[in-house]
Amino acid sequence: MVEVFITNIYEPAQASKTLETLKAEFPELSIHFDLHDPKEPFPCGHSVLRTEGADINSKEIIAAVARSGFLCDVLEDKACK
C-alpha cells in the first residue's frame, strides 16, 4: 500500500528531522520526502511525503507531522488555482 501526503516542509533540515521522527514512530514503513520550492502557499505549494507499507494509518501520520510543527494532509487529486 502507498499513501502520498502533502506538507509545508520545504527545508532539507526540517525534512530530515521529521523523517527521523516518522521512521522511529513507524519503523515498518518506507518513508521519504520530495521537497519543492513553493511558489504558492500550502496546500497548492507543497512538498510530498510518500509512505509505503502493509498498513498505513493516515490519521496517525498526519498527527505525527503536526506534532513536529508542520501541516500535512493526504494528497487529493485536484487542481489548485
What does this structure look like?
The structure is a single chain. This protein is an alpha+beta fold. It has one domain: Alpha-Beta Plaits. It is 30% helix and 25% strand. The chain has helices at 12-25, 58-67; strands at 2-7, 30-34, 47-52, 72-74. It has a four-stranded antiparallel β-sheet with strand order 2-3-1-4, covered by helices on one side. The N and C termini lie far apart (30 Å). The mean pLDDT is 88.
Report the end-to-end length measured between terminal Cα atoms.
30 Å
Radius of gyration: 12 Å
**CATH class placement:** Alpha Beta
Domains (count): 1
Order of helices and strands: EHEEHE
Mean pLDDT over the full residue set: 88
pLDDT < 50 stretches:
none
- Judging by the overall fold, what is the CATH architecture? 2-Layer Sandwich
Kindly state the percentage of residues in helix: 25-40%
Q: What's the overall geometry?
A: globular
**Tally of individual helices:** 2
Strand content: 15-25%
Trace the largest sheet across and list its strands: 2-3-1-4
Strand pairing plus helix content: what structural class?
alpha+beta
- Going by CATH, the homologous superfamily would be ACT domain
Number of strands: 4
Biggest sheet character = 4 strands, antiparallel
Quick rundown:
The chain is α+β, with helices and mostly antiparallel strands. It is 30% helix and 25% strand.
Describe this protein with a few key phrases.
Alpha-Beta Plaits, alpha+beta, four-stranded antiparallel β-sheet, 81 residues
Question: What topology does this entry show?
Answer:
Layout: E1 2-7, H1 12-25, E2 30-34, E3 47-52, H2 58-67, E4 72-74
Antiparallel strand pairs: 1-3, 1-4, 2-3
